[in-house]
Amino acid sequence: MNPWILAIRPRTLPAAIGPLLVGNILALQSEQFTWLIACTSMLCAILLQIAVNLANDYFDFKSGIDTEERIGPVRVTQGGLLPPNKVRNAIFISLALALLVGSYLIYHGGWPIAFLAAASILGALGYSGGPYPLASHGLGEVAAFIFFGLVAVVGSYYLQAGDTSTAAWILGSAIGFLNAAIMLVNNTRDMQTDIKAGKHTLAAHIGEGQARLLYQALVFLPFALIIGGFILGFLPGLPVLLAGVSLILARKLNSEFSHTSGEALNPLLGNTAKLTMIFSGLFSIGLVFV
Questions:
Q1: H helix and E strand count, the chain
Q2: Among the listed residues 138, 170, 147, the one whose alpha carbon sits nearest the alpha carbon of residue 287
Q3: Which segments cross the bilayer (predicted)?
Q4: This prediction's pTM
Q5: What value, to the nearest 5°, has the Cα angle with vertex 19 and ends 16 and 21?
Q6: Where are the domains of the chain?
């Protein structure tokens, strides 16, 4: 496989696509809605996700976290498939393209979007790099919840509607939990090698047993949130019903995580990302028909 494909990790891209899809479709009935904004915001999110993936690859290699003992998918810098300087340059190219694409969103959405754009770029670099890497201090799941949940859904809805809504905050939280679950699987898989390298992820702090309980909460809470949103009158019934179908997959993944560890978690990582996309896609389909 082309090393650049390995570097951008296509299996993780649903983490960026899902929340943007929901945020935009939620605002579909807004008089201001445009498909140009929808497509531009989604492209910007994908570029930021690619930048995060490249930065994680580069900074984990530079800090000595990624070694030959790594049990996850191949990292192109540590594996010698791409030289570090090329990966570093690709990080900044991805961020520059995201900013270029996002400049139209900033022009359209004003200072709130400019603030979110700046925070997102800092988050992309600060996840694995900088003086206080979020991933090395147990904040990776929190960052995923905020940026690939709340910021993505509420921000994209704001771009289209010019305001926020309770529904957007509920859905941002729901998808944020699912994306945090992706991060938790990744960090639980790498727990032993991370501890050796001095990387103190949330999984390393709480241990594998508690990580399994947390995963259970992260994949089931989204369904509780949307059902609660429906009962309180903030979300329509059809999208909630359709998204509820993905609970079947959530239960299956939780069962697998309860007795799986180490390298065997690799398929679960990709399948948790699929859960995010399926949940988001089904909810969006429901929104189109209400």
A1: 13, 0
A2: 170
A3: 12-29, 35-55, 90-107, 113-130, 142-160, 166-186, 218-248, 268-289
A4: 0.93
A5: 100
A6: 3-288
